[in-house]
Automatic annotation (TrEMBL):
It comes from the Bacteria. Residues 158-235 form the Signal transduction histidine kinase internal region domain. InterPro entries: Bact_2-comp_sensor_kinase (IPR050640), HATPase_C_sf (IPR036890), Sig_transdc_His_kin_internal (IPR010559). This is Histidine kinase. The chain crosses the membrane at residues 7-25, 45-62, 83-103, 109-131. GO terms for molecular function: phosphorelay sensor kinase activity. It holds the Pfam family His_kinase. Keywords: Kinase, Membrane, Transferase, Transmembrane, Transmembrane helix. The keyword Transmembrane applies. The keyword Metal-binding does not apply.
Length: 348
């Protein structure tokens, strides 16, 4: 292919321009150039072939110049300057090679000859420019899109890591606080709590952009609930239901936990806490309901709160990043209960 473009294509390009001009000129003058002297035709075709080499060489030099000067700039200004360069090359080269040939043969240089000499090669030059440069600009467009997607993904990954970093101190504070109060009453129980805490912390070290099995999330929640029960009121009434249909489904980790933690944090009144995780068609549905005190404090993440905490607000942002257009989340107070519902649509 390189041999063809370097040695075969240039003379074909020049001859195409020459024959097109000849056909148009003869259609106006009534001449038939193939009835002329073949010696004269051969000289003109030789000059046209040489002109083709000069054209392609000049175009390549022009393109190489702009590729070096504006390597990553594909603005309209660059394209405009390249097209202007192609126009000037044509104006110069075609008038050096073709205009003298037309003027010195047949009936001399007529106005229509001058129009043909200047327009026909320019027409082919613009076609050549479009075909040649469109490939480069398309590659640049693809590279720019890939670079933009990479930057976007890097930004989202950074944000997810930041959200995760926000959550860890929140979790650590609550867990350590539980262990602290146990140390005075029951050292053995405190040691067991430390082991549970270590298991929970180990799970949280997973990359939040890697999906895990739903059973791992269920086991994690159960361990977390066991840890929370230690510091909860003896009046706590806990109702758990995990759908047995949930087996091999994959989810992003630590999306259910903020709702569980929020329920333990604000439970009061009748101290009833209900958790339900079930499969519903293509969705995984998680429902958390907890009773609240008659004079309910401002609950984190609710519209009535003056300042949102990091828990539910953090969760909402992670859902937008990880399950864009594939989740439903609501949280609010209904009849002295705080109700939070989360639905995740599984990929097909």
């Amino acid at each position: 292919m390189r041999f063809f473009m370097k040695y075969i294509f240039p003379p074909l390009y020049g001859l195409l321009a020459y024959f097109t001009i000849r056909l148009l000129a003869d259609s106006v003058s009534g001449m038939l150039f193939w009835r002329r002297s073949w010696t004269l035709n051969g000289i003109e075709m030789a000059f046209s072939a040489i002109m083709g080499y000069v054209f392609i060489w000049a175009y390549n030099r022009l393109f190489a110049y702009y590729d070096r000067r504006w390597q990553h700039d594909f603005s309209s200004k660059r394209i405009g300057q390249e097209v202007l360069g192609v126009f000037l090359i044509n104006l110069l080269v075609q008038n050096i090679f073709l205009t003298p040939m037309v003027a010195l043969t047949d009936d001399g240089l007529q106005w229509y000859d001058l129009v043909d000499v200047n327009l026909i090669p320019l027409f082919y030059a613009l076609i050549y420019y479009g075909v040649r440069r469109s490939h480069l600009y398309f590659q640049a467009y693809v590279q720019n899109r890939l670079q933009l997607e990479k930057i976007t993904n890097d930004k989202l990954e950074t944000e997810l890591k930041f959200l995760r970093a926000q959550y860890h101190p929140h979790f650590l504070f609550n867990a350590l606080n539980t262990i602290y109060f146990q140390m005075d009453d029951d050292v053995v129980a405190a040691k067991k709590t430390v082991e549970q805490f270590a298991d929970l912390l180990r799970y949280q070290l997973y990359d939040q952009q890697e999906m895990v099995g739903i059973q791992q999330e269920i086991q994690y929640m159960q361990r977390f609930i066991d840890l929370q029960k230690i510091r909860s009121s003896p009046r706590l009434r806990l109702q758990l239901h995990f759908d047995e249909q949930l087996q091999d489904e994959k989810v992003y980790p630590l999306l259910f936990l903020p709702l569980v933690e929020n329920a333990f944090k604000y439970i009061g009144g009748d101290y009833l806490l209900q958790l339900e995780l079930r499969k519903q068609g293509a969705d995984i549905c998680f429902l958390v309901q907890n009773s609240i005190p008659a004079a309910a404090p401002e609950i984190e993440g609710l519209p009535v709160a003056r300042e949102k905490g990091i828990g539910l607000e953090n969760l909402q942002r992670r859902l937008e990043l990880l399950y864009q257009d594939r989740h439903y989340f609501s949280a609010g107070i209904k009849e002295q209960q705080f109700v939070a519902e989360l639905k995740l649509t599984l990929p097909p």
